[in-house]
Amino acid sequence: MRSSNPVFSRRGFSRDNGYAVNAQQPQAGSPAVGTNPYATGNPYAEGATNPYATNPYAPQDAQLGAPQQARGNVMTIDDVVSRTAMTLGTVVVTAVLSWFLLPVDAANLGKSYGIAIGAALVAFVLAMVQSFKRKPSPALILGYAAFEGVFLGVISAAVSTYIADGVVIQAVLGTMAVFAGVLIAYKMGWIRVNRRFYGFVMAAAMGFMLLMVVNLLFAVFAGGDGLGFRSGGLGILFGVIGVILGACFLALDFKQVEDGVNYGAPREEAWLAAFGLTMTLVWIYLEMLRLLSILQGDD
Q1: How far apart are CA 49 and CA 222, in angstroms?
Q2: In the chain, what is the straight-line distance between the N-terminal and C-terminal CA atoms, in Å?
Q3: Nearest to 15 by CA among 196, 249, 251, 269
Q4: Which of 53, 117, 177, 223 has the most CB atoms within 10 Å of its CB?
Q5: 3-state SS string over 143-210?
């Protein structure tokens, strides 16, 4: 399943990564052992083969949903957890440092905002470079996390100072709750990541982003809040939709990671998983922060 996360959708675990060549087809009349419905150009085609069949460390009898023993250079859940912890830890550390080192008082607000916007642009460039690379680069991924943390630290400090004190802690707890809730729902089978789910999430995400771009253009040329999608009742509605979309992205990311582990993806792919999960969690945090800011600002 290709995730809607821009990292996974550009270069997922399951296709166009240099490990999918010469994969063996299952014998006619035998169970689809080792088959991966996401290895071909159509991510939902049936009967495609394990894209990591040529990885000498990959389990050759991998079957979707079956637990695999860690072997050689195969990616494991522990690898994904450790890389994700490193990436998110970098975001948190740089966010805390920027909170204290880049004050948002009246005298320094403009300077701090300028640094935050610059950091956001650098993080975006690094994310795009990584998205187009054939292999994950830990340096690029950790660099993205560091600059993203600078941006989040300044924005969070400004929101806490000028809009609602304590809202940052609430947004962090809310993000953690969404992550835990989606993970539990996914593992319990309450969320089924299939073709219909993927199509719905992609359509909703494209529509959401289009409306945000239109709102931004109206805000730039007409002033104010544009079409009102970032404040008041509409702001609350779109904040809720943004959080829900982030939760859907998480489900797609979990599916992507699960497939990578089950099909014996190389261990280096754990960095790609960490990158994608970090981007999704940043999305959820920002939407949660905006939603809570609107709710508390209206009190």
Answers
A1: 53
A2: 42
A3: 269
A4: 53
A5: HHHHHHHHHHHHHHHHHHHHCCCCHHHHHHHHHHHHHHHHHHHHHCCCCCCCHHHHHHHHHHHHHHHH
Q: What angle do CA 44, 77, 95 make, to 5 degrees?
A: 100
Task: List pLDDT tens digits, range 210-264.
Answer: 888 887 787 767 666 666 667 677 888 888 999 999 999 999 999 989 998 988 8
Mapped onto helix, strand or coil, the DSSP state of residue 74 is: strand
Instruction: Give me the amino acid identity at 76.
Output: T
Closest CA to 244 of 189, 200, 299, 294: 200
pLDDT tens digits, 54-75: 444 444 444 444 444 445 688 9
* Calpha distance 58→98 (Å, rounded): 42
H-helix or E-strand spanning residue 294? helix 269-297
Rg (CA), the chain: 21
Residue position matching structure tokens 């999608």: 229
Give the amino acid at 228. Answer: G
Average pLDDT estimate for 166-170: 93
Angle subtended at Cα 14 by Cα 10 and Cα 16, rounded to the nearest 5 degrees = 60
**Mind listing the pLDDT tens digit for each residue in 33-61?**
333 333 333 343 344 455 555 444 444 44
Q: Are 152 and 285 in contact (CB under 8 A)?
A: yes
Residue carrying the six token digits 């460390």: 57
Q: What count of other Cβ atoms lies within 10 Å of the Cβ of residue 236?
A: 15
Query: Which one, of 51, 31, 22, lies nearest residue 256 by Cα?
Result: 51
The first and second tokens of residue 274, run together, are: 């960490």
Structure token pair of residue 60: 């050759």
Q: What is the reported pTM?
A: 0.78
Nearest to 297 by CA among 161, 163, 167: 163
